[in-house]
Amino acid sequence: MGTFYVENFGCRATQADGAALERQLRERGLDRAGSASQAELVVLNTCTVTASADRDARAAIRRIHRQNPECRIVVTGCYAQRAPQEIAALPGVSEVIGNSHKHELVKIALPREKDTNFTRFLETACEGPTTKSEVPRTKDVGPIYVSDIFAHTELLAAPVFDAANERTRPILKVQDGCDNRCSFCVIPQVRGQSRSLPLPQILQEVNTLVTAGYREVVISGINLGRWGRDLVNPARFENLIRAILDHTALEKLRISSVEPMDWSDELIRLVASSPRIAKHAHVPMQSASDRVLRLMHRKYRPWHYREKLEKIRATMPTAAIGADVMVGFPGETDDDFAQTHRMIDELPFTYLHVFTYSARPGTPAAGMGAQVPPTVAAERNRLLRELAAEKKQSFLRSFIGQTLDAITLNQFDGEHTECLTDNYLKLSLRGRHEANRWVPVSVQQANAGALLGVVV
């Protein structure tokens, strides 16, 4: 077997896992194929955060098996951990390897010799409802490697490179798993307890990227702000940020999503004061209704959240500030939604990721009553997206006539080079410019969700 292809679904953490698997497969001498249809081994690294994510994975399995019936399909990731028997029953699937065994995937898929150290855990039933068309009962189920995710201590780590901008802005996962128990979230069940990449390994990875010429690195995790709490010598997230600044020559560090309770005053001051940290804060909110937050088992109240965002804006006047917001949570009333809409309108958000609630098997919220009708949830989603678009456009217009630092990306449309500003705004720069360069840009226009400018 000489060629492979890894297809990732979902979040940055899943993409990071996929990057680590690619690194391991290359180390075993395999070459990356241009597509799944050209590969001898296809690894599908799945997500299960919503029902649509599950459907996307099943559709991909069917598509690949139809286009490349001779390839070996190995399914891993969060969906594989949650419902392995469901996946194993699909035509074309060779093995199902859950997150509990993902770090051993290459060894399982490409054994050098017979290894008896693996325990095969066969699930006796699918979790959650399935239909006959989704799970053909006549197919012989192949090997399944799944065990207790909470006993899992491994953490796969390798930089992720965007296919369209592979020469810029790699993403490095430094934390995995989550110790929170939000009532709507299946992530702890499929990724396990919070685990941190040791500081020396993080510094080594960042320094390797700097030596390779990268000027911005994004650090990410499932619950990034909890980094360091589980280490033999416990540390805090702020210690990690300071260590990267002190022990690497990285020009720009960007921090991905951090929960509200982990945006300490110290972290806010650190991000605000260092020119080497991108002025960007993503702070998940989910809801501004105290009642809904309690039903969600979130660990903050609306007034706590408001206080955090106001501090961030006060210390970083030009920062991009974003949030994840969920609509249609079971029992969300018109008044609950109105509270969320009002607080979003009042706070200095520059963008939102708006999600409609999707029941996940095994979570407390899936069994709650008063499920919100899909049409109502869809309308609430639309209203928040419209509000977010208005706030974003207003924020963009505020920079006309100003100068912003931006990193050039690896895309040119014939007239403009795509860039990303320090404060997380898309920017089209007149002319062709070499990728991976920080340049000062004079902003001239704000159109359709992006800025237009010229080099100063």
Your description of this structure?
The protein has 456 residues and is of the alpha/beta class. It has helices spanning 12-27, 51-67, 78-82, 84-88, 105-109, 187-191, 199-211, 237-247, 265-273, 290-296, 302-315, 334-346, 374-397, and strands at 3-8, 31-32, 41-46, 72-77, 93-98, 144-145, 171-176, 195-196, 216-221, 252-255, 280-282, 320-327, 351-356, 403-412, 416-421, 426-430, 438-447, 450-455. Among the domains are: 3-147, Rossmann fold (3-Layer(aba) Sandwich); 159-278, Transcription Regulator spoIIAA, CATH 3.30.750.210; 403-455, Nucleic acid-binding proteins (OB fold (Dihydrolipoamide Acetyltransferase, E2P), Beta Barrel), CATH 2.40.50.140. It is 32% helix and 22% strand. A 6-stranded parallel β-sheet has the order 2-1-3-4-5-6, sandwiched between helices. The protein has a 5-stranded mixed beta barrel with strand order 14-15-16-18-17. Strands 8-7-9-10 form a 4-stranded mixed β-sheet. Strand 9, helix 8 (237-247) and strand 10 form a beta-alpha-beta unit. Helix 7 packs parallel to helix 8 (237-247) and helix 12 packs parallel to helix 13. The protein is globular. The N and C termini lie far apart (52 Å).
Lay out the secondary structure.
Blueprint: E1 3-8, H1 12-27, E2 31-32, E3 41-46, H2 51-67, E4 72-77, H3 78-82, H4 84-88, E5 93-98, H5 105-109, E6 144-145, E7 171-176, H6 187-191, E8 195-196, H7 199-211, E9 216-221, H8 237-247, E10 252-255, H9 265-273, E11 280-282, H10 290-296, H11 302-315, E12 320-327, H12 334-346, E13 351-356, H13 374-397, E14 403-412, E15 416-421, E16 426-430, E17 438-447, E18 450-455
Parallel strand pairs: 1-2, 1-3, 3-4, 4-5, 5-6, 7-9, 9-10, 11-12, 12-13, 16-18
Antiparallel strand pairs: 7-8, 14-15, 14-17, 15-16, 17-18
Helix pairs in contact: 7-8, 12-13
